[in-house]
Amino acid sequence: MKNRLLYFILFINFGSIAYSQSLKEKIVFSNYDVPKNLNKLNKGSFDKTLYTRQFQDNATLNYFGLPAQKLNEFRYQFKTIDVDQESGIPTQFEGIGHWISRSAEVNNETSSQMLKEYLGLTHREYLGFNVLNSEMDELNIQHVSLVQTAYGIPIHGAEYRMHFYPDQRVFGHGRAFNLAPGISNPALSEDDAVEIMNQYFIKNEIHQVNSKAISNVLKGGILKKEMCYKFNAKTAKWALCYFINVIPNPSQHWDLYIDAMTGEVIESYSKICNVMSDACGDLAKCVSPMGAEVANATDLSNTTRTINTWKEGSTYYMIDGSRAMFKLSASSMPDDPNGGIMTVNGQNRSPSSSSFVLSHISSSNNAWSDKTAVSAHFNAGKAYEYFLNTHSRNSINGAGGTILSIINVADDNGKSMDNAFWNGEAMFYGNGAQAFTPLAKALDVGGHEMSHGVIQNTANLMYQGESGALNESFADIFGAMIDRDDWKMGEDVVVKSFFPSGALRDLSNPNNGGTSINQPYWQPKHVNEKYKGTQDNGGVHINSGIPNFAFYLFVQELRKNNRSEEDAKKIAEKVFFHTLKNYLTRSSQFVDLRIGVEKCATDLFGNVPDVLASVKTAFDQVGIPGTPNGGGGTQPKKDLSINPGKEFLVCTDANKDGVYLYDFINTPTQISSTSIISKPSVTDDGSEIYFVAKTNKLHMLTFNKSTGKYAESILDNTAIYRNAIISKDGTLLAALLTKEENIIHVYDFLSDEWKDFTLYNPTSTSSTTSDVRYADFMDFDHSGQNIIYDAFNVIKRANGNDYEYWDIGSINVFNLPLDKFGTGQVDKLFTDLPENTSIGNPVYSKNSLDVIAFDYVESDLFSSTYALLGANIEKGDVDAIAEDRSQLAYPSFSVKDNQVAFDSEDNQGDQSINTKGLAASKIVSSGSEKILLTGAKWGTWFANGKRNLIKTTDIKSLNEMSIYPNPFDQEFTLGINSKKFQWIQVNILNQMGQLIESKKIQLKEGSNEERLDLSHYIQGIYHLQIVNAEGSISAKLFKQ
Could you tell me if 930 and 903 lie in one domain? Predict the structure, then answer.
């Protein structure tokens, strides 16, 4: 839309100002009251005794309740690729951002607000997004990292990344949550939280030491503390917490979440990145395992290495000050080099001990006999060179920070440590015991540990669950690329009696000679082998085998196109590093890795098609899914047969003086001279036309087969009406009165009864609001059971800036199987509307039971922009039929549903009814706009033939279905009465219509009950679908 950029800028600048949505002018209501009891209506020649209603055995699913994001897809010209199965919030989208600025600062500002709108969170004023980081890469792509907030407080686990391309493409991915209103003021202070942390460490025998007493370059203590929201898995609720990131001693690095209201430590986990999983699960015992001079020295492999050392006075130190990152002026040598590569001695003591103090490794003559020190120092330099030369990364932190290696590290008992680890600040090497020889010997181990530092300073992947497995996997991948002679990890330091394959891990074969998780060297190589327990921080060292194998397979697929393995590795390592740096967040999962790798393959090698194909094949082979095709399986097609009669259009003129009939050939014929105030409503066969006259009286036109003309009569002479519609079969009439009220009045011509239906706005918890003031435009569905309508709403605000808008709902007014009035249940077309947006004038297509068209308007302080949209309410698709319009459309589908007629302008700017062709989906146009009738408006297309207005694919072998309780908290009981023994499939769909649960159930003849547990899903609206060979029946679920 042409005005989208202008609108978006206005929204940013004036977002705090409330104004009315100008979809329609406010209705001025009469000052007198309408009668309490409405008159019975008499059609005259209508013989109700000869009429039998068509009916369905079971009601089909009402798919109203689409996420607001569906409108935002149109608004921003984005397309949702994937959504969270529980919340329905998009996790991946892309499109063209015409509002993208060349200014990174503008993109940062607008992306926060745009993201909130696109994800459908504008109704939660307290939710937002803060930019964490923004940078431009070598491809001129801007990458923005954002964290979701509630009341300005970060929500941990809710992060999004936006990518802005030079050609205005936008790609977004991540996770966000629709948090309900909650507590934002803590009961405990930050000091209280620190004291709780101290007591927690004392209770679990974790020693705290002053890091400065150990070394000037080794950081420790509390590194970060902040207020946040964290999901409490025990209570399945969000909690206001203090987050503390702390290194109590060099062998420990912890993340703690402390409930800010109760003081409970709701979650804690170690961030120590070991080269090998520690089998110990007990927190108390979980001890994780530049110089101007050049020297030649022998390492643990008995290989002579050239290393860089530093001479201070007459003493040489194992400090490399030769790299470009070294800053002598900012250094205090030899104790605190700035930008140096430094190797020091842990003196065979445990980092968790109060006696742990680092000492320099020094020489009086630049000769070095300590092979362990030489290996660690040389390997650190090689790892530094890899990241600098291959990925243009300057040291671990990307900014030339000092690299620290500590050798001769003991375990808690003072014995030789059988591990190596990264503690968030330095690399620690043990000298081995049962499983390893001195670990400093292995270049891949050193590369692995340094890579953990790079990971920490880029995506900062959480060291838990799939995020932690990705953390370990990237460390393995880069470790293998630093020591790239094979695909094995630790093969130079493992003890074969402990690792029969001769390697700690093997990227080319994660099973590594093992057969099960009981063998410490075994890893899964496919998602179907994934470890799902709690040990090892949820399997961080175990499940890393899956993405490891994906990387290996990626390289092997690339080799198939006449590349050497080395050339294939160069492509793969670049793609994976670009993904880590620009596309992953702290809480990324395996599927996010695939999303990022696919995107980076396109970004970096878009002109080499086999790169992306190789990525997809590799991830497919390990079971990490790609972008879903969407939807919950094939739905029964719901199309009626086309009305076989002759086609007509009934309308009024530009001044609404009279009613006209047009046969698409001759000049329109006036069939009534009455001035009207409502769009004419027509039965499906065209035999009756209803409207409200300017006098507020209810009129009807009845076709006389003898004369071939319409005869006009006043159905109700009481001047109380402002709109009226007739059901497609002519048995029900809905009316709106001149009194301001949130009521639709429905009359049944067969029972001669009126029934009042109150309009309301439902919520996800099955409660209601009273924001609805009145309805205006209406249309019956094909069966006559539901009315789709638009309504004017007012939300009262404390500051007096009331928010006014129009939206669309559907209300159940009749039950065909029971032949009585309906329940009055209301469903909204969209669960929420974007800010400053209104929709209205909805109409059903002629033949598809799930397709509608409606008007859409975006408003700002100065103007409004209109569009005619189409929606498939079953599939959840929304698209544009006509954009950049200047007035409301009041649409009507053609008899064949291959065109739509709507109010517009002719070439002179005068009022006209125009048409546009429709594509097969019926919700997007095909072709240009054409003038149909000049000087006309409010057209309704119809044909004068007869057809069956009910289409059902419901299951006739089921007598009835019940759900109780509904709403429910954790689970509900599905009751089914079956006419025979049979198998059915029970599907649970989210609001996007995507399948999230599926279960096959065997039914016996008679009554059946099945309990279904949805406790693991958040509160909201879900859909239950039962499918067998005959068709399907569906119902709505409300989880509280």
Answer: yes
